[in-house]
UniProtKB/TrEMBL annotation:
HAMAP family, per the entry: P5C_reductase (MF_01925)
Protein name: Pyrroline-5-carboxylate reductase
Source organism: Derxia gummosa DSM 723
Gene Ontology biological process terms, A to Z: L-proline biosynthetic process
A GO molecular-function annotation: pyrroline-5-carboxylate reductase activity
Pfam families: F420_oxidored (PF03807), P5CR_dimer (PF14748)
UniProt: NADP(+) binding residues: I11, G12, G13, G14, N15, M16
Annotated metabolic or biological route of this protein: Amino-acid biosynthesis; L-proline biosynthesis; L-proline from L-glutamate 5-semialdehyde: step 1/1
Ranges of residues in domain Pyrroline-5-carboxylate reductase catalytic N-terminal: 7-100
Family: Belongs to the pyrroline-5-carboxylate reductase family.
Keywords assigned: Amino-acid biosynthesis, Cytoplasm, NADP, Oxidoreductase, Proline biosynthesis
Location of this chain's protein in the cell: Cytoplasm
Record-listed E.C. numbers: 1.5.1.2
Domain Pyrroline-5-carboxylate reductase dimerisation: 163-267
């Protein structure tokens, strides 16, 4: 980070907070400049041992002088947590990584319009994440830069110009790793059914997916063109893809993502009520 002693306070010390903390320290942040409010004693001990951060059981004094407060708690408790922090936020930028909860609701509860809502995903745990971000109008360019710096510590960032688009981000990248895992599971199961050992089938499925994704990322060709290059009419790939289309696999993936986006919007309605 640009200012290695800048104080960042995390409310909640779970897996995503730990990923962010690890990423920030790897980029030069001073561990003691990172505060974590975490009521679970075992998790606090882990945070102190693993990262050397300032981990404490409650928020009293934890927000004093903080440049940013990262809300990394479950959506269903965010309202209660935000209301409890309202008197202490001060000039800190508020960054939420809670799924579904809208920035304007967080702003109302916490008493600050400088709120950035984000949607990271689980590959952030290994520094390979991608995060969608949206800022309320009161956020300055510097605020957005700070949020981008924090979430960029665990992967790529993508800003959207309308917060409602974060429902689509949630559906594609937030929930997306589960779709990838489902596909890997299915390929692995197919390999075992055809006589491969479970270890062999898993290695083949995972590396094929990882390699295919990297090829798509590095190629100037679209995924559709890359698919066509692998598919010879009447060949093995053609047989597989024809069957998958007959089974409506592409349409099912699209329908699933649309359902995830709809549920994200519902969560905002459900947990955003006072």
């Amino acid at each position: 980070m640009g200012d290695h002693a800048r104080t960042i306070t995390f409310i909640g010390g779970g897996n995503m907070a730990q990923a962010l903390i690890g990423g920030l320290i790897a980029r030069g942040a001073v561990p003691r400049s990172l505060r974590v409010v975490e009521p679970n004693e075992a998790t606090r001990a882990l945070l102190i041992e693993r990262f050397g951060v300032d981990a404490r059981a409650d928020a009293a004094g934890a927000l004093a002088g903080a440049a940013a407060v990262v809300l990394s708690v479950k959506p269903q408790v965010l309202r209660e947590v935000a209301l409890g922090l309202a008197a202490e936020v001060g000039d800190a930028l508020v960054i939420s990584i809670a799924a579904g909860i809208r920035a304007r609701d967080i702003a109302r509860w916490i008493g600050s319009d400088r709120v950035v809502r984000t949607m990271p995903n689980t590959p952030a745990l290994i520094g390979e994440g991608i995060t969608g971000l949206a800022a309320l109008p009161a956020c300055t360019t510097a605020d957005q830069g700070l949020a981008d710096e924090l979430l960029g510590a665990v992967g790529r960032t993508v800003w959207v110009d309308d917060e409602s688009k974060l429902d689509a981000v949630t559906a594609i990248s937030g929930s997306g790793p589960a779709y990838v895992f489902l596909f890997i599971e299915a390929l692995e199961a197919a390999g075992v059914r055809m006589g491969l050992g479970a270890t062999e089938a898993r290695a083949l499925a995972i590396q094929t997916f990882a390699g295919g994704a990297q090829l798509a990322a590095r190629s100037d060709d679209s995924p559709a063109v890359l698919r066509e290059k692998v598919t010879s009419k009447g060949g093995t790939t053609f047989a597989a893809l024809t069957t998958m289309r007959d089974k409506a696999v592409p349409e099912s993936i699209i329908a699933g993502a649309l359902a995830a986006a709809a549920r994200s919007a519902e969560l905002g309605d459900e947990f955003g009520r006072d």
